[in-house]
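Quick start: what a row looks like.
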Amino acid sequence: MMKFKRALALVVMMCTFAMVLTSFAGCGDDAASNEPHEVAYTVYVSPDGNDETADGSKENPFGTIEGAKEYVRGLKKNKGDIIVEIADGFYELDETLVFNEDDSGTTKCNIIYRAAEGAKPIISGGKILDAEWVVADDVDWLEDGLVAYKAPLERDDKLRAIYVDGTRAEMTRRTATPLKAVGFYSIVAGQADWAWISSSGTTIRTGNVFDESFGLPADTRNPQNIELESGSTWVKATVCAQDLEVTEDGDTQVNFQMPYAAIAQNLGWNTNYNPTASNDVINVFEWLDSEGQFYFDQAGSMLYYIPREGEDINEAQVIIPELEKLVEVSGSEPLETYAQYIIFDGLTFAYSDWNLYELDGSHGNATTQNCTIYTKYSDVYWHNDLYRAFDVAPAAVHVSTAHDVDFINGGFESTGYLGIHLENDVYDCDIIGNFIAYTGGGGITVGHLQHIYENDTEEQRVSETSAGPDKEKFPYGTEAVPKNITIKNNYLLENCYFFPGNSPITTFFTYNLTVEHNFIYKCSYSGMSIGWGWCNFDGTEGSQLPGQPTTTSRYNHVNYNRVEEICSVLQDAGGIYTLGQQGNEDWTDVTEMSYNYINCFREPTVADGSRMVNGFHPDEGSAYILFDHNVVTNVIRNVYELNDWMRKHDCIVTNGFSNTDRSETTAPNCTLEQYVNEDYIWPVEGYDVVLYSGLEDEYVDMVSKDVMPDDYYELAANVSIACGELLNRRGLLEADDTVWLAPAGTTEFEECSTMTTAAGNEKTIQIPDEPGEYKLYIVYADGTVSGESEFTVYAGENTSAVNVSDGRTYTVSKMSPLELEIKDGYTVTVNGTQAADGFIISDAGEWEIVATSDADGETQTYNITTEVMIANTLLEYDMTVGPGEDVPFSNPANDASLVIWLAPSGLSAFDEDDPTQSRAAGDATSMKAPTEPGVYIMTVVDADGTILSQSDAKVTVE
């Protein structure tokens, strides 16, 4: 049932001591936190106030935050804190709220914009629709009793979202593969400021064609508002239609908005918009046919909506996003004049708008990874330009050239793209205790992808033809990597709706970043992305700038977080994903990622390698990271993706816990120590990691009971513990509630050898004296009883005779078989044949395992199933061949719909022209090895490029 893997050297202790002894030197006198002072002034804001007549008193408040902000500018900043108390209400913004040095506090005075006690004011970039809805008779194709409504709305551009009683309505969407691409588009370097290089003239298409049966009318309304989206493994790209026309064959041709559609087609690693791949076509009027869908007819100034069950649209609050940026906090002179000592407490920023990136009248959104946007036609290999052709996406709240600016106890919700972005020259800022939900992109973003170096000179140019420092977003003398940023106790729920390639928390290059006690639940890709730069700026001979290693990302702390339900849309990801070097070669300023709980999926999941969903995914260049006391469950690929790929190195895992031993630790100087239990039963040490991960006690009320029921805080996981010991709990119930440990099925509770109890607010409960399995029950003060807990206490010695569980399916291969571990004192048979300790099962099949006690003859029976993934049937054993030589398949797949690749481990995008990769059809009997020496695995993908499985065996080319 359990294994303990150790591969640890003395270097671990040395590195740990180095980490503990490392000290951080702050940013001068300003490094001190903005401590509270006596209150000098209180200024009041209310929706019922009037800026023209207000004096800021409670009786005569301002009506807007802008009005109060202007008033505060005139107050003295040396007598104590200034509080702007904001009453409950919905505050519609007409323009961005800008806070600069004139709106700042001092070391003796914080400017605090605080919600009134009990209030939850919303600062909105959207306006409440004031219009009457009537039945839309022109939507006459609906069935099953559905009814569409319409209301007048005037707006100068398209609408990508509306919110009905706080819930986002959806644009219409259908999926199809175009018949073909049409037209060619050429770019000449220098023709515009976005044209950095010339195109070949044959790679950029101007449109595509959809079969008539797809039902895309060429005469549909507002064709310029239609979007087309194609996807890769880890990101999606969007272009927009210019117009539609009928072809000679009666099909529908979509002509793209240029030049952005050209830029979107010029990205590497298959992340470009692909006009001939599967496309989602979005925002077509005639496809309005489901509850919760809307359509805005811009030309007709009419909004359409199909209500959800139970909605009365004329009674509902409908919000129309209008403003892209709600708040800008920024000093006027980077590195010199800052916005400072400003606190936003208890405010929710919501309903921002974004209608995609605009370039010379065209729109779209494309990038190679994460929350970045491709803005120039440039080198497809983005590392060569030091990412200067890319920017970070817009945020509802943007902070730059600022310090001691905090956002606490509030939220960021329902945004057009990012929630909050701390970008450049920002330090000593906190984002703590916020509810961050339903954002269009990531919730929290820190830094910028161009922060590889600070204040670049000509030395930071790869070649004469690549972009130089004149293309930097932050000119020389204005650039500083974010430092001393704290992201703590935030609940990030269902982020990244519009842009699934984002992560709820993304940080680029940072120093002394703290990401602790956050709860990320339900996201489309990785839960967090920490770091940037891959291995391309590590200063080695193979890097873009040999001898110039980036040193801007160091000493980061990612601890005590809870991440669950990741990768709902995309993959090649992890609960926590990292890039680039995160510490120094002497193991000073290393990065730590400890005491995190990553549960990729709440449903039990087999780690069969069919999708690249990892627990921790240290990607290219990741180095000098310590992973300690993390619990990782329900991965599909690896618990730790520490394969020897693109100069990963020096990552150390200690005291790990998982339900699978599937990990790779072949990268140089990487070690793994991990406890494995396939039934998710942890010793107390692992149980406590789960219990205390995520939000601290003060913040758990942000999470609904359907996500975290009461018993999750009182019995956080399955645990193995000695009888009579004390088990930790969070103790978040009322004092007059009672908590019980009792056998499953118990309905009457009384203290005895098999039942123990504790008060609801106690932090521990004693384990019963009698060995057995126990559930936790809560008897509330009103007499109601919870159901039995999801998790179980295993008190006393483990009695299982073998290391399998009845009814389980195991993924096996010749190189990674199931090896039976038999407890002393038992005789075991497998399908009727006696088996010794170490018996190997490496084939697919059904197996009855019977263990008989030598002492008393009692038996334990386990019926299990094993399966072998297709890649492991093709390549059963390791082999060594010469470059380009034949690699025979052990068992050919005989399936022409499949594609088989030999490529480095860790790839999810493939290129037949790459000498480290080779390709074969699924009905082949062998394939050629790559022409470049190396170690390769076999990957099988379907016709859409989705990875089905990857081999455990390896092919060495030498």
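That is the whole record. Residues 874 and 890 are 5 Å apart (CA to CA). The chain has a mean pLDDT of 95.
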